[in-house]
Specification:
The complex is a heterotetramer of chains A (229), B (101), C (487) and D (106).
Chain B (H helix, E strand, L loop, with lengths): L1 H27 L3 H21 L3 H32 L14
Chain C lengths: L5 H18 L4 H26 L2 E5 L8 E5 L1 H24 L2 H23 L3 H20 L3 H33 L4 H7 L4 H18 L8 H7 L2 H26 L9 H30 L3 H17 L1 H4 L2 H32 L10 H4 L1 H15 L5 H15 L3 H26 L13 H16 L5 H6 L12
Helix pairs in contact in C: 1-2, 1-4, 2-3, 2-4, 3-4, 3-10, 3-14, 3-19, 4-5, 5-6, 5-10, 6-8, 6-9, 8-10, 9-10, 9-12, 10-14, 11-12, 11-18, 12-14, 12-18, 14-16, 14-17, 14-19, 16-18, 16-19, 17-18
Chain D lengths: L1 H23 L3 H23 L9 H32 L15
Helix pairs in contact in D: 1-2, 2-3
Classes of the chains: A mainly alpha (229), B mainly alpha (101), C mainly alpha (487), D mainly alpha (106).
Amino acid sequence: MNNTGENTIPLSLRLLLMVLLTVMAVGLAYAVLSLPAQAPGLSVYAVENINISGVSNPVTAVLLNYRAYDTFLELGVLLLALLGVWSLGCAGCQHQSSPGPVLDSLSRLLVPILIMVSGYLLWAGAHAPGGAFQAGSVLGAAGVLLLLAGWRIHAGLAGLPLRIALVLGVAVFALVGAVLILPGGQLLAFPPAYAGGLILLFETVATLSIAISLTALFLGADPDEEDAS
Amino acid sequence: MEALTQLQLAFDAVLGLALLWLAWQTLASPELFRAIVLFIAFGLLMALAWVRLEAPDVALAEAAIGAGLTGALLLTALSRLEPKNKSKIPHSKKPESEVDE
Amino acid sequence: MIEMHWVVIVILLPLTGAVVCFLWPRQTVVSGLITAVGLFASVLGLTWQVLEQGALRYAVGGWGAPLGIDLYVDGLSLLMLIVTAVVGLAISVYSSAYFRLDRAKHFWPLWLFLWAALNALFLSADIFNIYVTLELMGLAAVALVALSGGANALTAAMRYLLVSLLGSLFYLMGVALLYHSYGSVDIAILSQRVESSPAVWVAIGLMVAGLLLKTALFPLHFWLPPAHSSAPAPVSALLSALVVKASFYILLRLWLEVFPLTNTVPGQFALGQFGLAQILGLLGAAAVLWGGIQALRQTRLKLLVAYSTVLQIGYLFLAFPLASIIGWKAALYLLLAHAVAKTAMFMAAGNILFYGGHDRIADLDRVAQRLPLTLSAFGLAGISLMGLPPSGGFIAKWLLLEAAIRSGQWWWGLMLIVGGLLTGAYVFKVIGYAFTRSDLPHEPGFVPKRMEWVALVMALLAIVLGLFAPLPLALLEIGSPFGESLR
Amino acid sequence: MSYIFLYALVGMGLFTLGLYALIIHAHLLRKILAINIMGSGVFLVLVALAARTEGAAPDPVPHAMVITGIVVAVSATALALALMLRVRSETGRAELDEEPLSKFDD
């Protein structure tokens, strides 16, 4: 019964694979150990520019200022994964077990806490550990909990409003990023005076988009289509 | 001070081995449900490793996304996978419709 | 005059288009087509700008490398952008007739996302940013393959996803080792700093392995035929024409700039790269043979065309052991010619499938009389793939042959002839069946004229490319991506 | 800073272990888990080596890269799981091999 599915590969091949992978692992280990024992990487640059980055948490500065373009594309990856999941339709999403009373009361207790934690993380990200991704995923966890407790999005919101919320992160990055070009700047170049505010704006929309995307990924299918069928 | 460093190193060694062991168990576990639970535990230990490596931002992201949401996604997928397992016999593949439109 | 940021526009426009298509599914085809035309024009704008000003570097966020991410356009990336724009526009027009609305509403956002990912990838000068674009491209491509539904397509898409993620992880591990060796992920900075060291060698090994897996070079091609043959026809076209070329482009870029032997003491490093180049050449030769033989053996048209892609990818790797400017140019011209011809060929195969409801080669049943435009497209594309004059494929092979002879390694040129003969054999096999009567009569379907004409235009373009070769070849000189001096 | 290299080596170990499991297991859910563990291995190498310089704050750039990587990984996992379920509903099995097996997973 509990066939792990690895029986299809003969032992001799598996041994060969083990030998090959051991060689690879030794090579990888040798490469790591041969690296210089000390290296500052880019931390010097990151710290040098922190005053004009708009935040004081260096990781947030990298994510939302120095390398904000990566973050922009990454929000694209998240949206794209959702598009992919929706295009697949959903196998076995229909029947959801009804939530027990424990889950119901648990969600009543936990959801407000998660929302608060998320808000804190979003705000704290500027100067302490935290930020849009952490806040977004905590908020997404609240959404997942709501789904588990049997909550479903209101049919009137399942179409365009939901889609707008999903693309919010990508759209605001693209729009504001492009507007910043107009005064003679570059894409996503934040003037130091406004950097703090702009980062907070980006983090807020990113948090919302990430949370809703993750919740929607958990749901599996496009709620608008689910109703239609 | 010396003792503290020793202690920390021992902690790191234990954590490192625990990560490898959990990964191995996750991938070798005969039951899928157990594998997923072990994977979530693996994610939480990863978060601990991020803390040790002075990466609290990564630790938060890992705990929330890596362990939490990925775990939830995996468990839901498993629950959607399993019920069919019991009722349905794998039907022989039906000849595929050859037009893709 | 205000400086136009074409570099940024060619990335933001398809993303915006994807978002609009996603928000308003009912108007998705119109929005998609407008975006495609706009994007084509933007790439022309960028071309004009680069022709005027030479290679461009653009610091996103205004920081500049190493702290920020740079975009960089030279002749090489420009050529890739143009190929993508031409093939992309053709695929957009074809798809506007191919998909019904229930699938068009999924196709367009995914396709525009893929287009954005391709453009971002070709423009990026940052190896970590390239990782993100690779994932963006991979996920979009997988979702597009799965769009045809059915067990074969879904299984192929699943395998493709796993392969794609695995390749990206190998690449990312290489990025990690390079970053921690030299403290930068910018290609230009790395090219100045890289020296021979164990970490660099392991990084090269990992990145080359990951990218070869994504490029489907023999023997890592196992995932390509099922994925490319079971996808909807326009998706097959864009996978074969563009997506496998994107990972080839990254490999080429790294090979030329990050892994080069010129800036270090000649010796161990140079020898190592020489050896690796020979291995790549051998794999390329094996791919030519294997892909050609497998293509001949197929009974289904789309699988035949997919194996032909395996063969053509083999050609590209023959340039590595030659390591000369003319060799690289030849490989890129081959890439260009193949992209256009293969698009035409997959479109033709799609039309035949659309018409007859199947793509069994033995039952093509006088398709030549019924779909003359489509069959002409198939034949003309075949001429370019075979490398007969005056097609684009001919010029590319001619250049590659010249490079092989100049470098004293004529045996690589031999593979071009072998590949050409194999290609001729499988193209004529299809055309032969297309003229003969089959026992199984068709239930003829309706093929929109637009789909036939686009296929034919692309096939004609593949031929015409042979007449205008100096233009693209001169374009490649901008920013001298292949180095100044000959080896 | 020996412990830094210890973590980096563990990362390499996870990478190798995941690759082994990815190749030998047939069940798609296991393949997806294996890919995720390989990813964790890469992330561990990236972050561990960022803290090499003694007494200084670790380099934030790899941290940001890993956060990006984690989000990419969860996106890919979600798509992979959805695809796995569709493969399952079309073929009756959550595996890749073409020919039906007599034995059934789990």
